[in-house]
Amino acid sequence: MLHRASTLAIVAVLVGTAACSTKKKALPPPPPPATAPTGSTSTAPSTSGSSDTGVGTTNLPGSVADFKATSGSDTVLFAYDSYDVDDTAKAILGKQAEWLARYPGVKVTVEGHTDERGTREYNLALGDRRASAAKNFLAAQGVSSGRIATISYGKERPVADGTDEAAYAQNRRAVTVIVSGAK
Amino acid sequence: MRSLPLLLALLLATPALAVIRVDINSGTAQPLPVAVPAFATASAVATEAGTTAALGSQVASVIAADLASSGLFRPLDSAAFTTSVTPADVTAPQFAAWRTIAAQALITGNVTANPDGGITVGCYAYDVFSAEELARQGFVTTAANWRRAAHKCADLVYSRLTGETGYFDSRIVYVSETGPKTHRIKRLAVMDQDGAGHRFLTNGQSLVLTPRFAPNQQTLTYMSFANNRPRVWIYTIGSGHQEAISDTGNMSSSPRFSPDGATLVYSISQNGTTDIYKMNLASRNVTRLTNGPGISTSPSYSPDGSKIVFESDRSGGQQVYVMNADGSGQQRISFGEGRAGTPVWSPRGDLIAFTRLGGGKFRIGVMRPDGGGERLLTNSYQDEGPTWSPNGRVILFFRTAAGRGGKVDLHSVDLSGANERTIKTPLDGSDPAWSPLLP
Fold it and tell me: What's the pTM?
Protein backbone atom coordinates (compact mmCIF):
# COMPACT_ATOMS: atom_id res chain seq x y z
CA MET A 1 0.00 0.00 0.00
CA LEU A 2 2.92 2.34 0.62
CA HIS A 3 4.39 4.10 -2.37
CA ARG A 4 8.02 3.77 -3.18
CA ALA A 5 8.75 7.41 -2.40
CA SER A 6 7.26 7.17 1.04
CA THR A 7 9.09 3.94 1.65
CA LEU A 8 12.36 5.70 1.00
CA ALA A 9 11.31 8.51 3.26
CA ILE A 10 10.63 5.99 5.97
CA VAL A 11 14.07 4.51 5.58
CA ALA A 12 15.49 7.98 5.99
CA VAL A 13 13.45 8.51 9.11
CA LEU A 14 14.51 5.13 10.37
CA VAL A 15 18.18 5.82 9.95
CA GLY A 16 17.79 9.37 11.21
CA THR A 17 16.31 8.25 14.48
CA ALA A 18 18.58 5.29 14.84
CA ALA A 19 21.23 7.07 16.78
CA CYS A 20 18.73 8.21 19.35
CA SER A 21 17.28 4.77 19.83
CA THR A 22 18.34 1.67 21.59
CA LYS A 23 21.46 0.15 20.20
CA LYS A 24 21.12 -3.25 18.65
CA LYS A 25 24.67 -4.46 18.28
CA ALA A 26 23.76 -7.67 16.54
CA LEU A 27 22.36 -5.81 13.58
CA PRO A 28 24.44 -4.98 10.53
CA PRO A 29 26.13 -1.58 10.47
CA PRO A 30 24.29 1.44 9.12
CA PRO A 31 24.57 2.43 5.49
CA PRO A 32 27.22 4.98 4.48
CA PRO A 33 26.71 8.63 5.24
CA ALA A 34 24.56 10.02 2.45
CA THR A 35 21.96 10.08 5.20
CA ALA A 36 24.42 10.23 8.02
CA PRO A 37 22.92 9.73 11.41
CA THR A 38 23.18 12.51 13.88
CA GLY A 39 22.69 12.54 17.59
CA SER A 40 24.41 12.16 20.86
CA THR A 41 25.86 8.77 20.17
CA SER A 42 26.95 9.45 16.63
CA THR A 43 30.58 9.60 15.77
CA ALA A 44 32.31 11.31 12.94
CA PRO A 45 30.98 10.01 9.66
CA SER A 46 33.12 7.45 8.04
CA THR A 47 33.18 7.11 4.31
CA SER A 48 34.33 3.56 4.32
CA GLY A 49 33.51 0.48 6.34
CA SER A 50 31.35 0.30 9.40
CA SER A 51 31.01 2.73 12.24
CA ASP A 52 30.14 2.19 15.86
CA THR A 53 26.80 3.88 15.36
CA GLY A 54 23.90 1.67 16.39
CA VAL A 55 20.69 1.05 14.52
CA GLY A 56 17.37 1.44 16.24
CA THR A 57 13.85 0.65 15.25
CA THR A 58 10.89 2.86 14.56
CA ASN A 59 7.21 2.40 14.07
CA LEU A 60 6.33 2.16 10.40
CA PRO A 61 3.04 3.75 9.42
CA GLY A 62 0.30 1.16 9.25
CA SER A 63 1.94 -1.12 11.79
CA VAL A 64 0.50 -2.26 15.06
CA ALA A 65 3.18 -0.28 16.88
CA ASP A 66 2.27 2.80 14.84
CA PHE A 67 -1.37 2.33 15.84
CA LYS A 68 -0.46 2.35 19.52
CA ALA A 69 1.96 5.25 19.21
CA THR A 70 -0.31 7.40 17.08
CA SER A 71 -3.36 6.75 19.25
CA GLY A 72 -1.44 7.27 22.46
CA SER A 73 -2.55 3.83 23.63
CA ASP A 74 -4.43 0.75 22.57
CA THR A 75 -6.13 0.77 25.97
CA VAL A 76 -8.79 2.91 27.60
CA LEU A 77 -9.64 2.68 31.30
CA PHE A 78 -12.95 2.72 33.16
CA ALA A 79 -14.16 3.63 36.62
CA TYR A 80 -15.32 0.89 39.02
CA ASP A 81 -18.33 -1.00 37.68
CA SER A 82 -18.68 1.65 34.96
CA TYR A 83 -18.69 1.48 31.20
CA ASP A 84 -18.78 5.24 30.66
CA VAL A 85 -16.21 6.38 28.12
CA ASP A 86 -14.63 9.36 29.89
CA ASP A 87 -12.79 12.28 28.26
CA THR A 88 -9.38 10.61 28.45
CA ALA A 89 -10.79 7.50 26.85
CA LYS A 90 -12.59 9.56 24.20
CA ALA A 91 -9.34 11.25 23.22
CA ILE A 92 -7.58 7.90 22.82
CA LEU A 93 -10.48 6.26 20.98
CA GLY A 94 -10.76 9.34 18.75
CA LYS A 95 -7.14 8.93 17.69
CA GLN A 96 -7.66 5.20 17.23
CA ALA A 97 -10.60 6.02 14.95
CA GLU A 98 -8.50 8.50 12.94
CA TRP A 99 -5.80 5.89 12.48
CA LEU A 100 -8.35 3.27 11.49
CA ALA A 101 -9.77 5.70 8.95
CA ARG A 102 -6.32 5.93 7.34
CA TYR A 103 -6.05 2.13 7.12
CA PRO A 104 -9.47 0.91 6.06
CA GLY A 105 -8.24 -2.65 5.56
CA VAL A 106 -7.51 -3.06 9.24
CA LYS A 107 -9.88 -5.06 11.43
CA VAL A 108 -9.84 -4.94 15.20
CA THR A 109 -11.21 -6.76 18.20
CA VAL A 110 -12.02 -4.70 21.27
CA GLU A 111 -11.38 -6.74 24.43
CA GLY A 112 -13.37 -5.80 27.52
CA HIS A 113 -11.86 -6.49 30.94
CA THR A 114 -12.79 -5.89 34.58
CA ASP A 115 -11.07 -5.76 37.92
CA GLU A 116 -11.68 -8.62 40.34
CA ARG A 117 -14.24 -6.82 42.47
CA GLY A 118 -17.22 -8.45 40.82
CA THR A 119 -18.53 -11.99 40.54
CA ARG A 120 -17.34 -14.04 37.60
CA GLU A 121 -20.47 -14.11 35.48
CA TYR A 122 -21.41 -10.50 36.15
CA ASN A 123 -17.89 -9.45 35.18
CA LEU A 124 -18.13 -11.29 31.87
CA ALA A 125 -21.22 -9.21 31.14
CA LEU A 126 -19.51 -6.02 32.38
CA GLY A 127 -16.51 -6.70 30.14
CA ASP A 128 -18.92 -7.03 27.23
CA ARG A 129 -20.41 -3.67 28.18
CA ARG A 130 -17.00 -2.01 28.14
CA ALA A 131 -15.96 -3.57 24.86
CA SER A 132 -19.28 -2.55 23.32
CA ALA A 133 -18.98 1.01 24.68
CA ALA A 134 -15.53 1.39 23.10
CA LYS A 135 -16.74 -0.19 19.87
CA ASN A 136 -19.76 2.09 19.71
CA PHE A 137 -17.56 5.13 20.22
CA LEU A 138 -15.23 4.05 17.41
CA ALA A 139 -18.24 3.41 15.18
CA ALA A 140 -19.62 6.85 15.98
CA GLN A 141 -16.31 8.30 14.76
CA GLY A 142 -16.91 6.65 11.40
CA VAL A 143 -15.20 3.27 11.74
CA SER A 144 -17.45 0.69 10.13
CA SER A 145 -18.83 -1.54 12.88
CA GLY A 146 -18.18 -4.52 10.62
CA ARG A 147 -14.47 -3.91 11.20
CA ILE A 148 -14.84 -4.08 14.99
CA ALA A 149 -15.42 -7.33 16.84
CA THR A 150 -15.76 -7.51 20.61
CA ILE A 151 -14.84 -10.08 23.20
CA SER A 152 -15.17 -10.01 26.97
CA TYR A 153 -12.68 -11.65 29.28
CA GLY A 154 -14.39 -10.45 32.46
CA LYS A 155 -11.89 -10.68 35.31
CA GLU A 156 -10.00 -13.57 33.73
CA ARG A 157 -7.09 -11.68 32.17
CA PRO A 158 -5.84 -8.88 34.42
CA VAL A 159 -2.69 -7.00 33.38
CA ALA A 160 -1.85 -6.17 36.99
CA ASP A 161 -1.85 -8.73 39.79
CA GLY A 162 -2.82 -7.19 43.08
CA THR A 163 -5.70 -6.26 45.32
CA ASP A 164 -5.28 -2.49 45.50
CA GLU A 165 -6.75 0.37 43.51
CA ALA A 166 -3.56 0.77 41.45
CA ALA A 167 -3.95 -2.76 40.13
CA TYR A 168 -7.73 -2.58 39.84
CA ALA A 169 -7.51 0.67 37.79
CA GLN A 170 -5.22 -0.90 35.20
CA ASN A 171 -7.44 -3.94 34.88
CA ARG A 172 -10.70 -2.07 34.19
CA ARG A 173 -10.03 -1.61 30.52
CA ALA A 174 -10.94 -2.01 26.89
CA VAL A 175 -8.06 -2.91 24.58
CA THR A 176 -8.25 -2.40 20.83
CA VAL A 177 -6.34 -5.27 19.27
CA ILE A 178 -5.54 -5.29 15.56
CA VAL A 179 -6.42 -8.70 14.18
CA SER A 180 -5.76 -8.24 10.46
CA GLY A 181 -4.80 -5.74 7.79
CA ALA A 182 -1.88 -4.09 9.58
CA LYS A 183 1.67 -4.09 8.28
CA MET B 1 -19.51 -43.59 31.81
CA ARG B 2 -22.30 -45.99 32.67
CA SER B 3 -23.59 -45.86 36.19
CA LEU B 4 -22.15 -48.72 38.17
CA PRO B 5 -24.55 -51.23 39.65
CA LEU B 6 -24.84 -50.66 43.33
CA LEU B 7 -27.63 -52.89 44.42
CA LEU B 8 -29.57 -52.98 47.57
CA ALA B 9 -28.95 -56.41 49.03
CA LEU B 10 -30.49 -56.27 52.45
CA LEU B 11 -33.38 -54.19 53.49
CA LEU B 12 -32.85 -51.83 56.32
CA ALA B 13 -34.23 -52.90 59.62
CA THR B 14 -35.27 -49.94 61.67
CA PRO B 15 -35.85 -50.38 65.37
CA ALA B 16 -38.85 -48.72 66.89
CA LEU B 17 -36.83 -46.51 69.22
CA ALA B 18 -33.59 -44.77 68.46
CA VAL B 19 -31.95 -43.20 71.43
CA ILE B 20 -29.27 -41.13 69.75
CA ARG B 21 -30.07 -38.42 67.32
CA VAL B 22 -27.80 -35.82 65.75
CA ASP B 23 -29.18 -32.29 65.65
CA ILE B 24 -28.07 -30.81 62.36
CA ASN B 25 -29.51 -27.39 62.95
CA SER B 26 -27.36 -26.38 65.87
CA GLY B 27 -23.93 -25.44 64.59
CA THR B 28 -22.53 -25.43 68.12
CA ALA B 29 -23.56 -28.98 69.04
CA GLN B 30 -20.78 -31.31 70.11
CA PRO B 31 -20.10 -33.83 67.36
CA LEU B 32 -21.25 -37.35 68.17
CA PRO B 33 -18.42 -39.71 69.21
CA VAL B 34 -18.58 -42.66 66.84
CA ALA B 35 -16.45 -45.79 66.45
CA VAL B 36 -15.80 -47.05 62.93
CA PRO B 37 -13.56 -50.13 63.31
CA ALA B 38 -12.17 -51.96 60.29
CA PHE B 39 -14.91 -53.93 58.58
CA ALA B 40 -14.62 -57.65 59.15
CA THR B 41 -14.05 -60.34 56.58
CA ALA B 42 -14.47 -64.09 57.12
CA SER B 43 -11.31 -64.82 55.15
CA ALA B 44 -9.06 -62.49 53.23
CA VAL B 45 -9.94 -63.07 49.58
CA ALA B 46 -8.02 -61.38 46.78
CA THR B 47 -9.99 -58.97 44.56
CA GLU B 48 -8.97 -56.60 41.77
CA ALA B 49 -8.72 -53.88 44.43
CA GLY B 50 -6.79 -55.81 47.10
CA THR B 51 -7.84 -58.39 49.66
CA THR B 52 -11.21 -58.18 51.36
CA ALA B 53 -9.33 -57.67 54.65
CA ALA B 54 -7.50 -54.64 53.27
CA LEU B 55 -10.74 -53.33 51.79
CA GLY B 56 -12.43 -53.73 55.19
CA SER B 57 -9.92 -51.37 56.71
CA GLN B 58 -10.10 -48.89 53.82
CA VAL B 59 -13.90 -48.86 53.79
CA ALA B 60 -13.94 -47.98 57.50
CA SER B 61 -11.45 -45.15 56.91
CA VAL B 62 -13.56 -43.62 54.13
CA ILE B 63 -16.72 -43.83 56.24
CA ALA B 64 -14.97 -42.21 59.21
CA ALA B 65 -13.59 -39.41 57.01
CA ASP B 66 -17.03 -38.77 55.49
CA LEU B 67 -18.71 -38.58 58.88
CA ALA B 68 -15.97 -36.34 60.30
CA SER B 69 -16.20 -33.94 57.34
CA SER B 70 -19.83 -33.22 58.15
CA GLY B 71 -18.78 -31.74 61.48
CA LEU B 72 -21.62 -33.70 63.12
CA PHE B 73 -19.60 -36.80 64.05
CA ARG B 74 -16.28 -37.34 65.80
CA PRO B 75 -14.75 -40.67 64.76
CA LEU B 76 -12.69 -42.04 67.65
CA ASP B 77 -9.02 -42.84 67.18
CA SER B 78 -8.68 -46.53 66.38
CA ALA B 79 -5.64 -46.69 68.67
CA ALA B 80 -8.06 -46.33 71.58
CA PHE B 81 -10.18 -49.32 70.52
CA THR B 82 -10.12 -52.15 73.05
CA THR B 83 -11.46 -54.71 70.63
CA SER B 84 -11.42 -55.55 66.96
CA VAL B 85 -14.43 -56.75 65.04
CA THR B 86 -14.80 -60.40 64.10
CA PRO B 87 -17.41 -61.51 61.57
CA ALA B 88 -19.61 -62.67 64.47
CA ASP B 89 -19.34 -59.27 66.15
CA VAL B 90 -20.91 -57.50 63.19
CA THR B 91 -24.40 -58.65 64.04
CA ALA B 92 -23.75 -59.02 67.78
CA PRO B 93 -21.35 -56.24 68.81
CA GLN B 94 -19.45 -56.23 72.09
CA PHE B 95 -21.21 -53.10 73.28
CA ALA B 96 -19.40 -53.06 76.63
CA ALA B 97 -16.06 -52.67 74.89
CA TRP B 98 -17.32 -49.68 72.88
CA ARG B 99 -18.90 -48.11 75.95
CA THR B 100 -15.52 -48.02 77.68
CA ILE B 101 -14.20 -45.60 75.06
CA ALA B 102 -17.41 -43.57 75.17
CA ALA B 103 -18.44 -44.31 71.61
CA GLN B 104 -22.09 -43.40 71.25
CA ALA B 105 -22.57 -44.96 67.86
CA LEU B 106 -20.82 -47.97 66.35
CA ILE B 107 -20.54 -48.29 62.58
CA THR B 108 -19.42 -51.73 61.64
CA GLY B 109 -19.81 -54.23 58.86
CA ASN B 110 -18.11 -56.72 56.64
CA VAL B 111 -16.62 -57.09 53.19
CA THR B 112 -17.34 -60.31 51.32
CA ALA B 113 -15.98 -61.39 47.96
CA ASN B 114 -18.67 -62.47 45.52
CA PRO B 115 -18.32 -65.31 42.98
CA ASP B 116 -18.44 -62.79 40.08
CA GLY B 117 -15.36 -60.95 41.42
CA GLY B 118 -17.39 -58.19 42.99
CA ILE B 119 -17.88 -57.46 46.66
CA THR B 120 -20.69 -57.02 49.14
CA VAL B 121 -20.19 -54.40 51.83
CA GLY B 122 -22.47 -55.02 54.79
CA CYS B 123 -23.10 -51.80 56.70
CA TYR B 124 -24.47 -51.81 60.28
CA ALA B 125 -25.09 -48.95 62.69
CA TYR B 126 -25.72 -49.36 66.42
CA ASP B 127 -26.58 -47.18 69.37
CA VAL B 128 -23.86 -48.28 71.78
CA PHE B 129 -25.52 -47.32 75.06
CA SER B 130 -28.96 -48.72 74.33
CA ALA B 131 -27.40 -51.68 72.43
CA GLU B 132 -29.90 -51.17 69.67
CA GLU B 133 -29.42 -51.66 65.98
CA LEU B 134 -30.16 -48.45 64.07
CA ALA B 135 -29.73 -49.54 60.46
CA ARG B 136 -28.28 -52.24 58.25
CA GLN B 137 -27.87 -52.44 54.52
CA GLY B 138 -25.71 -54.32 52.05
CA PHE B 139 -24.09 -52.75 49.01
CA VAL B 140 -23.03 -54.89 46.07
CA THR B 141 -20.60 -53.51 43.54
CA THR B 142 -17.32 -54.18 41.76
CA ALA B 143 -14.27 -54.40 43.99
CA ALA B 144 -12.77 -51.37 42.24
CA ASN B 145 -15.85 -49.39 43.21
CA TRP B 146 -15.40 -50.01 46.96
CA ARG B 147 -15.13 -46.30 47.79
CA ARG B 148 -18.67 -45.70 46.57
CA ALA B 149 -19.96 -48.56 48.73
CA ALA B 150 -18.25 -46.88 51.70
CA HIS B 151 -19.86 -43.52 50.80
CA LYS B 152 -23.26 -45.24 50.56
CA CYS B 153 -22.71 -46.68 54.03
CA ALA B 154 -21.75 -43.24 55.40
CA ASP B 155 -24.87 -41.79 53.76
CA LEU B 156 -26.98 -44.49 55.44
CA VAL B 157 -25.52 -43.62 58.85
CA TYR B 158 -25.88 -39.88 58.29
CA SER B 159 -29.46 -40.33 57.16
CA ARG B 160 -30.41 -42.60 60.08
CA LEU B 161 -28.88 -40.32 62.71
CA THR B 162 -29.85 -36.92 61.34
CA GLY B 163 -33.14 -37.65 59.62
CA GLU B 164 -31.78 -36.03 56.43
CA THR B 165 -30.63 -37.59 53.17
CA GLY B 166 -26.88 -38.03 52.96
CA TYR B 167 -24.53 -36.44 50.44
CA PHE B 168 -21.28 -38.41 50.59
CA ASP B 169 -21.81 -40.48 47.43
CA SER B 170 -21.49 -37.49 45.11
CA ARG B 171 -18.94 -35.69 42.97
CA ILE B 172 -17.59 -32.20 42.47
CA VAL B 173 -16.68 -30.61 39.16
CA TYR B 174 -14.58 -27.46 39.35
CA VAL B 175 -12.02 -25.34 37.53
CA SER B 176 -8.41 -26.20 38.36
CA GLU B 177 -6.19 -23.11 38.17
CA THR B 178 -2.47 -22.60 37.91
CA GLY B 179 0.03 -19.96 36.77
CA PRO B 180 0.27 -16.21 37.35
CA LYS B 181 -3.00 -14.31 37.66
CA THR B 182 -2.27 -12.47 34.42
CA HIS B 183 -1.88 -15.71 32.45
CA ARG B 184 -4.00 -18.17 34.34
CA ILE B 185 -4.33 -21.70 32.97
CA LYS B 186 -7.74 -23.17 33.74
CA ARG B 187 -8.87 -26.75 33.32
CA LEU B 188 -12.07 -28.59 34.08
CA ALA B 189 -11.53 -31.26 36.73
CA VAL B 190 -13.82 -33.72 38.47
CA MET B 191 -13.37 -35.60 41.73
CA ASP B 192 -15.36 -37.47 44.34
CA GLN B 193 -16.86 -35.33 47.08
CA ASP B 194 -13.94 -36.32 49.35
CA GLY B 195 -11.28 -35.44 46.76
CA ALA B 196 -10.60 -39.04 45.64
CA GLY B 197 -10.53 -40.03 41.98
CA HIS B 198 -9.38 -36.58 40.82
CA ARG B 199 -8.99 -36.19 37.08
CA PHE B 200 -8.69 -33.39 34.56
CA LEU B 201 -11.25 -33.19 31.78
CA THR B 202 -9.67 -30.47 29.61
CA ASN B 203 -6.04 -29.72 28.82
CA GLY B 204 -5.88 -26.03 29.62
CA GLN B 205 -5.47 -24.78 26.05
CA SER B 206 -8.76 -22.91 26.30
CA LEU B 207 -9.99 -20.81 29.18
CA VAL B 208 -12.93 -22.65 30.78
CA LEU B 209 -15.35 -21.41 33.43
CA THR B 210 -18.42 -22.32 35.49
CA PRO B 211 -18.96 -26.06 34.94
CA ARG B 212 -22.26 -27.49 36.24
CA PHE B 213 -23.68 -31.02 36.34
CA ALA B 214 -26.75 -32.23 34.55
CA PRO B 215 -29.09 -34.22 36.79
CA ASN B 216 -27.76 -37.43 35.20
CA GLN B 217 -24.25 -36.57 36.57
CA GLN B 218 -22.79 -37.71 33.25
CA THR B 219 -23.13 -34.45 31.38
CA LEU B 220 -21.66 -31.05 32.22
CA THR B 221 -22.36 -27.63 30.87
CA TYR B 222 -19.67 -24.96 31.04
CA MET B 223 -18.28 -21.92 29.30
CA SER B 224 -15.20 -22.09 27.09
CA PHE B 225 -13.17 -19.50 25.21
CA ALA B 226 -12.12 -22.10 22.61
CA ASN B 227 -11.19 -20.38 19.32
CA ASN B 228 -11.64 -17.02 21.05
CA ARG B 229 -15.38 -17.48 20.90
CA PRO B 230 -16.65 -17.44 24.47
CA ARG B 231 -19.76 -19.55 24.64
CA VAL B 232 -21.62 -22.34 26.33
CA TRP B 233 -20.50 -25.93 25.78
CA ILE B 234 -21.69 -29.36 26.86
CA TYR B 235 -19.28 -32.10 27.92
CA THR B 236 -20.14 -35.77 28.16
CA ILE B 237 -17.90 -37.23 30.85
CA GLY B 238 -17.75 -40.83 29.68
CA SER B 239 -16.97 -40.19 26.02
CA GLY B 240 -15.17 -36.88 26.44
CA HIS B 241 -17.40 -35.48 23.70
CA GLN B 242 -17.57 -31.67 23.72
CA GLU B 243 -20.07 -29.61 21.80
CA ALA B 244 -20.61 -25.87 21.51
CA ILE B 245 -24.27 -25.18 22.19
CA SER B 246 -25.01 -21.53 21.59
CA ASP B 247 -23.83 -20.39 18.20
CA THR B 248 -25.27 -16.92 17.74
CA GLY B 249 -21.91 -15.21 17.34
CA ASN B 250 -22.46 -13.39 20.63
CA MET B 251 -20.99 -14.41 23.96
CA SER B 252 -23.06 -16.94 25.91
CA SER B 253 -22.29 -17.65 29.55
CA SER B 254 -23.49 -18.85 32.97
CA PRO B 255 -25.22 -22.06 31.84
CA ARG B 256 -27.22 -24.39 34.08
CA PHE B 257 -29.47 -27.36 33.46
CA SER B 258 -33.11 -27.48 34.46
CA PRO B 259 -33.90 -30.06 37.18
CA ASP B 260 -35.17 -32.54 34.53
CA GLY B 261 -32.09 -31.98 32.35
CA ALA B 262 -34.18 -31.19 29.28
CA THR B 263 -33.53 -27.46 29.26
CA LEU B 264 -30.43 -25.30 29.46
CA VAL B 265 -30.75 -21.80 30.89
CA TYR B 266 -27.92 -19.32 30.18
CA SER B 267 -27.10 -15.74 29.22
CA ILE B 268 -26.34 -14.09 25.90
CA SER B 269 -24.49 -10.77 25.75
CA GLN B 270 -25.17 -8.51 22.81
CA ASN B 271 -23.92 -4.96 22.40
CA GLY B 272 -23.37 -4.51 26.12
CA THR B 273 -26.69 -5.95 27.23
CA THR B 274 -26.89 -9.41 28.80
CA ASP B 275 -30.16 -11.34 28.98
CA ILE B 276 -31.27 -14.80 30.03
CA TYR B 277 -32.44 -17.40 27.53
CA LYS B 278 -33.41 -21.03 27.71
CA MET B 279 -32.85 -23.76 25.17
CA ASN B 280 -34.82 -26.98 24.77
CA LEU B 281 -31.91 -29.38 24.32
CA ALA B 282 -33.91 -31.82 22.18
CA SER B 283 -35.30 -29.30 19.69
CA ARG B 284 -32.63 -26.60 20.21
CA ASN B 285 -35.45 -24.07 20.31
CA VAL B 286 -34.37 -20.93 22.18
CA THR B 287 -36.70 -18.74 24.26
CA ARG B 288 -35.74 -15.33 25.58
CA LEU B 289 -36.67 -14.91 29.25
CA THR B 290 -35.48 -11.40 30.16
CA ASN B 291 -35.45 -8.26 28.10
CA GLY B 292 -33.15 -5.78 29.82
CA PRO B 293 -32.37 -3.21 30.82
CA GLY B 294 -28.76 -3.91 31.76
CA ILE B 295 -27.27 -7.20 32.80
CA SER B 296 -29.34 -10.24 33.76
CA THR B 297 -27.32 -13.39 34.34
CA SER B 298 -26.54 -16.33 36.70
CA PRO B 299 -29.91 -18.11 36.33
CA SER B 300 -30.72 -21.16 38.51
CA TYR B 301 -33.92 -23.23 38.49
CA SER B 302 -35.98 -24.06 41.55
CA PRO B 303 -35.92 -27.84 42.18
CA ASP B 304 -39.51 -28.21 40.93
CA GLY B 305 -38.58 -26.42 37.69
CA SER B 306 -41.33 -23.84 38.05
CA LYS B 307 -39.17 -20.80 38.82
CA ILE B 308 -35.77 -19.34 38.03
CA VAL B 309 -33.68 -17.20 40.38
CA PHE B 310 -31.17 -14.86 38.71
CA GLU B 311 -29.28 -11.63 39.21
CA SER B 312 -29.81 -8.33 37.45
CA ASP B 313 -28.47 -4.78 37.76
CA ARG B 314 -31.64 -3.29 36.26
CA SER B 315 -32.21 -1.34 39.49
CA GLY B 316 -28.62 -0.02 39.58
CA GLY B 317 -26.40 -2.65 41.19
CA GLN B 318 -26.49 -6.44 41.15
CA GLN B 319 -29.54 -7.80 43.00
CA VAL B 320 -31.32 -11.15 43.10
CA TYR B 321 -34.62 -11.65 41.29
CA VAL B 322 -37.06 -14.53 40.87
CA MET B 323 -39.22 -15.19 37.81
CA ASN B 324 -41.48 -17.92 36.56
CA ALA B 325 -39.74 -20.41 34.26
CA ASP B 326 -41.44 -18.79 31.24
CA GLY B 327 -39.95 -15.40 32.12
CA SER B 328 -43.12 -13.90 33.58
CA GLY B 329 -43.49 -12.36 37.02
CA GLN B 330 -39.95 -11.01 37.45
CA GLN B 331 -39.55 -9.77 40.99
CA ARG B 332 -36.62 -8.48 43.02
CA ILE B 333 -36.07 -10.38 46.27
CA SER B 334 -32.75 -9.09 47.68
CA PHE B 335 -32.75 -5.75 49.46
CA GLY B 336 -29.92 -5.95 51.99
CA GLU B 337 -26.90 -3.68 52.19
CA GLY B 338 -24.56 -3.88 49.21
CA ARG B 339 -25.05 -6.03 46.14
CA ALA B 340 -26.15 -9.61 45.76
CA GLY B 341 -25.31 -12.02 42.92
CA THR B 342 -24.72 -15.64 41.84
CA PRO B 343 -27.96 -17.00 43.32
CA VAL B 344 -28.34 -20.78 43.43
CA TRP B 345 -31.54 -22.50 44.48
CA SER B 346 -31.18 -25.19 47.15
CA PRO B 347 -32.11 -28.73 46.04
CA ARG B 348 -34.56 -28.70 48.97
CA GLY B 349 -36.22 -25.61 47.56
CA ASP B 350 -36.32 -23.76 50.86
CA LEU B 351 -33.30 -21.46 50.45
CA ILE B 352 -31.24 -19.57 47.90
CA ALA B 353 -27.47 -19.33 48.35
CA PHE B 354 -25.82 -16.23 46.92
CA THR B 355 -22.79 -13.97 47.05
CA ARG B 356 -23.15 -10.76 49.08
CA LEU B 357 -20.88 -7.97 47.79
CA GLY B 358 -20.11 -5.07 50.10
CA GLY B 359 -17.44 -3.48 52.22
CA GLY B 360 -14.74 -4.62 49.81
CA LYS B 361 -15.64 -8.27 50.43
CA PHE B 362 -17.63 -11.09 48.91
CA ARG B 363 -19.41 -13.33 51.42
CA ILE B 364 -21.59 -16.39 51.00
CA GLY B 365 -25.14 -15.99 52.26
CA VAL B 366 -28.51 -17.70 52.18
CA MET B 367 -32.02 -16.30 52.06
CA ARG B 368 -35.50 -17.64 51.56
CA PRO B 369 -37.01 -17.52 48.04
CA ASP B 370 -39.06 -14.53 49.19
CA GLY B 371 -35.83 -12.73 50.13
CA GLY B 372 -36.38 -12.97 53.89
CA GLY B 373 -34.22 -14.59 56.53
CA GLU B 374 -30.88 -13.56 55.06
CA ARG B 375 -27.85 -15.02 56.86
CA LEU B 376 -24.20 -14.59 55.91
CA LEU B 377 -22.17 -17.77 56.44
CA THR B 378 -18.60 -16.70 55.64
CA ASN B 379 -16.34 -13.68 56.09
CA SER B 380 -13.17 -13.37 54.02
CA TYR B 381 -11.74 -11.21 51.22
CA GLN B 382 -13.62 -12.87 48.38
CA ASP B 383 -15.94 -15.86 48.79
CA GLU B 384 -17.91 -16.49 45.64
CA GLY B 385 -19.89 -18.99 43.61
CA PRO B 386 -21.88 -21.15 46.07
CA THR B 387 -23.11 -24.64 45.17
CA TRP B 388 -25.28 -26.92 47.30
CA SER B 389 -24.67 -30.43 48.56
CA PRO B 390 -27.33 -32.80 47.17
CA ASN B 391 -29.21 -32.69 50.49
CA GLY B 392 -29.11 -28.89 50.78
CA ARG B 393 -27.14 -28.95 54.07
CA VAL B 394 -23.64 -27.94 52.96
CA ILE B 395 -22.47 -25.15 50.67
CA LEU B 396 -19.29 -25.34 48.65
CA PHE B 397 -17.74 -22.12 47.31
CA PHE B 398 -14.38 -20.73 46.23
CA ARG B 399 -12.25 -18.27 48.15
CA THR B 400 -9.72 -15.83 46.72
CA ALA B 401 -7.15 -14.55 49.19
CA ALA B 402 -6.16 -10.87 49.12
CA GLY B 403 -2.79 -9.75 47.82
CA ARG B 404 -0.64 -10.45 44.77
CA GLY B 405 -0.98 -14.03 43.62
CA GLY B 406 -3.66 -14.61 46.25
CA LYS B 407 -4.52 -18.29 46.55
CA VAL B 408 -7.81 -19.47 45.10
CA ASP B 409 -9.26 -22.61 46.63
CA LEU B 410 -12.44 -24.51 47.44
CA HIS B 411 -14.13 -24.38 50.82
CA SER B 412 -17.25 -25.85 52.34
CA VAL B 413 -19.45 -24.54 55.12
CA ASP B 414 -22.45 -26.01 56.89
CA LEU B 415 -25.76 -24.28 56.44
CA SER B 416 -25.51 -23.28 60.11
CA GLY B 417 -22.33 -21.32 59.31
CA ALA B 418 -20.25 -23.84 61.28
CA ASN B 419 -17.69 -26.38 60.11
CA GLU B 420 -15.91 -24.32 57.46
CA ARG B 421 -13.37 -26.55 55.74
CA THR B 422 -10.84 -26.32 52.92
CA ILE B 423 -11.39 -28.84 50.14
CA LYS B 424 -7.97 -30.04 49.04
CA THR B 425 -7.22 -29.93 45.32
CA PRO B 426 -3.94 -30.60 43.51
CA LEU B 427 -3.73 -26.99 42.26
CA ASP B 428 -5.81 -23.89 42.96
CA GLY B 429 -9.54 -24.36 42.45
CA SER B 430 -12.60 -22.24 41.62
CA ASP B 431 -16.16 -22.48 40.26
CA PRO B 432 -17.16 -25.66 42.10
CA ALA B 433 -20.42 -27.44 41.34
CA TRP B 434 -21.75 -30.34 43.39
CA SER B 435 -23.41 -33.27 41.63
CA PRO B 436 -26.70 -34.81 42.68
CA LEU B 437 -26.41 -38.02 44.70
CA LEU B 438 -25.06 -40.76 42.47
CA PRO B 439 -27.47 -43.60 41.63
Answer: 0.88
